[in-house]
User: What shape does this take?
Amino acid sequence: MLSLSGKIVAITGASGGIGEATARLLARRGAAVVLAARRSERIDAIAQDIREEGGRAATCVVDVTKAEDLRRLVSTTVERYGRIDVLVNNAGIAPISPLADLDTEGWSAMIDVNLRGMLNGVAAALPVFREQGKGHLVSIVSVAGLSVSPSMAVYAATKNAVRTVHEGLRTESTDGVVRTTAISPGYIRTDLADSMADPALRHRTRENMDAMGIPPEAVARAVAFAVEQPDDVEIGEINVRPTVQA
Assistant: This one.
């Protein structure tokens, strides 16, 4: 029977939504988790909950746009638990808008968090994975990159860029040392809409989430499935969407 017992997992964007659900689920299944996010009080509270339930959890305040923060997350994980088996790149924002709105600040923010944040994670974790002889990179992408909707062009572009980096890393890692998994959620009930500046888009996204969204635990289970596989098995990509989503 597959198990997460003994796995050491660091998770960005762990203060809510998919990141929080993933931390809680993996800890319940035996992994030690390090929760990373900007909201220290929130990740501290979640980690305390996990420990009270008998799990192992630590925290690290991280802004994924800062390379030094990701290096500190990896070093904190190794110092606390002796190694890092998995880095889950989950932090992401979606200040979406039509291209004609020319929201260049929003575009830059999505590039910085969604793409550069993931690359900062790669740069921090990859040398440690190589030194250890194994490691697993998991990134939360999006089905938005598979079928681009109006107002989603730049957001989808950042997610597709992450998907491309993952495939590149996979082809460079056929020695079996580094595994990669890209997980693309559809409508999940999270607070992602809070990062949308346009009130109409924010309202419509929340309506869609309420109408068809599935819990973030659905994505957490996909993460667990990929992570618990034996070292010679790589789950390259998983799409997780509501059955009613087109």
User: Anything to note?
Assistant: DSSP finds seven helices and seven strands in the chain. The radius of gyration is 17 Å. Residues 104-132 form the longest helix (29 residues).
